[in-house]
Amino acid sequence: MNLTEFARWAIENGAFEGTSIDGAEIQDKAEACGILVKVRYNPAIHGENSVGAEPGDPWYAFTNEFKDAEDVAIR
């Protein structure tokens, strides 16, 4: 997982005048950086959704490494 790479990319591509990124680009970069992983949607695991996903549809979820990092303070 590379949070530094993701953060740098987001800042360079979304925070400055004349730059913009959309949700699909964010999702793709997060997957490439090991923050998200593509799985099959399971309402018992992922809960209800507001996008009309049906069981078995492609779904993105946080990787275990990212979930574990949520508990670690950034220094």
Structure report:
The protein is of the alpha+beta class. It has one domain (3-69). 43% of the residues lie in helices and 13% in strands. The chain contains 4 helices and 2 strands, in the order ααβαβα. The chain has a two-stranded antiparallel ribbon. The longest helix has 12 residues, at 3-14. The radius of gyration is 14 Å and the shape is globular. The mean pLDDT is 90.
Explain briefly what this protein structure is.
This protein has one domain (3-69).
Strand content: 5-15%
Termini Cα gap: 17 Å
The rough form would be described as globular
User: What is the count of DSSP helices, taking H or I runs of 4+ residues?
Assistant: 4
pLDDT under 50 segments (min length 5)? none
Q: What can be said about the biggest beta sheet? A: 2 strands, antiparallel
From N to C, what is the helix and strand string? HHEHEH
Q: Helices and strands: which structural class? A: alpha+beta
| Helical percentage | 40-55%
User: How many E-type strands?
Assistant: 2
The neighbouring-strand order within the major sheet is 1-2
Rounded to the nearest angstrom, the radius of gyration is: 14 Å
Q: What is the residue-averaged pLDDT?
A: 90
